[in-house]
UniProtKB/TrEMBL annotation:
It comes from the Bacteria. The keyword Transmembrane helix applies. Its main location: membrane. Residues 457-486 have a biased composition (Polar residues). Belongs to the multi antimicrobial extrusion (MATE) (TC 2.A.66.1) family. This is MATE family efflux transporter. Keywords: Membrane, Transmembrane, Transmembrane helix. PANTHER family: PROTEIN DETOXIFICATION 44, CHLOROPLASTIC, PROTEIN DETOXIFICATION 44, CHLOROPLASTIC-RELATED. It is found in: Membrane.
Amino acid sequence: MSSSSEPSPRNPATETTASIGVGELGRRLWSIALPVLPVLAAEPVYLLVDGIVVGRQGPEDLAALGVGSLVLLVLGTQMNFLSYGTTARAARLHGAGRRSDAVAEGVQATWIALAVGALVVATVSVLMGPLTTVLASDAEVAARAAEWLRVAVWGIPLILIAAAGHGWMRGVQRLRTPLVLVAAGIGLSTIGCVVFVPGLGPIPEFGLIASAWANLAGQFVMAGGFVVALIIEHAGSLRPRRAVILSQLRMGVDLIIRTASFQITFAVATTAAAAAGVASLGAHHLAQQLWALYTLVLDSVAIAAQSLVGAALGAGLAGHGRALARAVVLWSLGLGVVLAVATVLLRDQLAGGLAGEAQVADRLVVALIGMAIVVLPAAVVFGLDGVLLGAGDAAYLRTTTVIAALCGFLPVLLATRHFGWGLVGIWWGMGVFVMMRLIAVAIRVRGDRWMVLGSATPGSTPEGSATPGSSSGEAAGTTNGKTVTE
């Protein structure tokens, strides 16, 4: 049962690889990537507006907002398995012609969001004082951050519910609804922040606490919209299913470990920049913000790859999956070239516009050159990460990312701190990290082990899987849940 007015997405099970060219595959990638991009960008843009509005209340309030929002950001990022993992599982089922089962993955992911969210709220509530004290050097700032977080922490289950909603909707290629829900939620939060924090017209000034309530209101609208859409779309039982939840959690653990390795290495990179001086630290912060924008663009293509590759493998179309992988590499590399060239050509303007002080701007130019070099292989890594995530190959990505972080990035960062290489050393470390991951994912995609066909993701439980059997005559060995040998 579906009340969606969106056009029905294509199902790979009804198509043959021979009928689809590289241009058509690229068009399909961008048909998903373009609606996903504003969804990804909405939260950072809102945080920027929130920071500007609160910053006008005074430096203490801005610092408190920074501390509180950092806690939410770290927790929310760690839980991204609810979107990435659910996309992979739902896309396979959708490709196999089992849309109702694909939507049912969203039901189980929502139960996980509620359970994990409640646990996180309880934990943060108990540790709120020590957390804000450690993160803030000033007692007044810590107290204000705790006041903000005491309200905003209730948004964590809502953030996780929305992540689960994004996951199953991307899996079934329903893209308009998330865009509308995010626009409504972010719009409400922005209006609430702009009106109630400073107090406009007859509205009294509520200050920092209004920022927390505005956040919560927007998150409630988004989460509520995803729940309503799920109930309307899903015709079956809404009860939790233990086997499916355990399968989702197994993939989730792999993705959490992978994300943690990113966060740890980036935190060490910040300490290396701080050791090089205030100007280097400021330039590093600005470069990281710009890099975050770049990753949003690259991640939109990766998410499109997850959805399309998962659907192709779920339909048993091995050749289609490989064709998609090649198209992802081509389009991701092209996007990386555009970003690299733009960064090099506009490096002085970017540095001057972002940095308010000449010494910081000079350091930022160094970081921008490093960024322009690294974004080329990084673009391909993002795309192939999306391919392998769509295939459900999260365990391989977990292991190779941790190895690249521990054996590549961290040693260079430690040497940078010791020898004082500054931003040059940090971006050399980033380059080593990216190249190690590129080698790992390229080797994997060239092989066959990721080509597991059928509706069940690798390592999932038998419950919810299709009856074993050939789902396509496109290639030999297209048995559900089996690795293909073409």
